[in-house]
C-alpha cells in the first residue's frame, strides 16, 4: 500500500467552514421498475477539495454522479452546483461541471486539438485558444495536439478525457474511476495530475474502488452503500484512526473492575473481565506500553498472553459495507 502523502495540506479555501461548492440535500432516485438507488443522500462538497466517493458495486456512485452532472433525473431532493440548481438552472449548473468518464468511446479519428476545441464549443463557450493551449500543456498533451486520438497510448487517451472535461473551464471536476484498469505507473501519473488540478483551484470528486487511491489522494472520503452515505470524514482523521493499534492482554485472573488508579480513556476491561484492551498511537514514539505493563505489575495484575491488532481503512470500509443495515456508527463531517 502506498504511503499517505503528507505533502499537500488541505488548501485554505477547502476548510470545513468554506461554503459548499456542491450541495446535495435529501437526494433520492427510484429507477423505473421501482429500484431505489439513492435513499435520501445529504452531502456537501467543499470548494477546492479532493473528495473520494467509495462504495462497492451497485452502491449508487454512478447514479449520484450522473444526477449531479445532469445525465440522470433525480426522483426527489435538491442539488446545487456552484450555487445553481441542477434541475431549474440546468445550463448554468452543467457549465460549472466537467465529467471525466472511464472510457473514451468516440473521436478516434479526430486530432487532440480538434476534439478538445469541439468539447468547448458544445458548452457554447467562445473559442479561447490560449486557454486550451494551457490545458494541453498542463496535461503534457501539447506536443500531441496534431495527433489522431486512435494513435495515442492509453495514458495519453486518459489525459485527453481530462482535457475535454476541462475545455469549458469548469470549477468542479468529476472523475469516474480514474485509474480503473491502468498500470501502476499511470496510476501514479494520474494521481499527480489530479493533485495539480486541485492546486490550480478545481474541486475534484472522484469515485474509486481502490482504497489506497482514496488514502493517497483525497482530502475527504465518503462511503456510500445501498444508496446511503454511511461515512464522511477527513482523510487525515481516518489515517489517525489507522495509526491506532490495540494491545490486548489476556489476564491470569478475571477482574471485576479496573483499579481506579489505572483508569484512562486508552484502557478498557472486557465485559467478562478476562481481557484488558489498551489503545495506542502506533506512530507515536512513546506508546506508553512499558509504563502500562509496569503499573499492572504494581497492582498485581498478571497476564498470560498478549497480542496487538491494527485497524485499516480497508477494514473500516469492509465493516461499513458488509451488510445492508449494519452500517456502524455514522460519522459525518
Ligand atoms: N437505468 C437503471 N435502471 C434500473 N436500475 C438501475 C439503473 N441504473 C442503475 N441501476 C441500479 O442502481 C444501483 C446503483 O447503480 P450504480 O451504477 O449507481 O452503482 P455504482 O455504485 O456506480 O456501481 P459500480 O461500482 O458497479 O459502478 C444498482 O443496483 C443498479 O443495478
Automatic annotation (TrEMBL):
The keyword ATP-binding applies. Keywords: ATP-binding, Nucleotide-binding, Transport. GO terms for molecular function: ATP binding; ATP hydrolysis activity. Pfam families: ABC_tran (PF00005). It comes from Lysobacter antibioticus. InterPro entries: AAA+_ATPase, ABC_transporter-like_ATP-bd, ABC_transporter-like_CS, ABC_transporter_ATP-binding, P-loop_NTPase. Residues 22-251 form the ABC transporter domain. This is ABC transporter family protein. CDD domains: ABC_DR_subfamily_A.
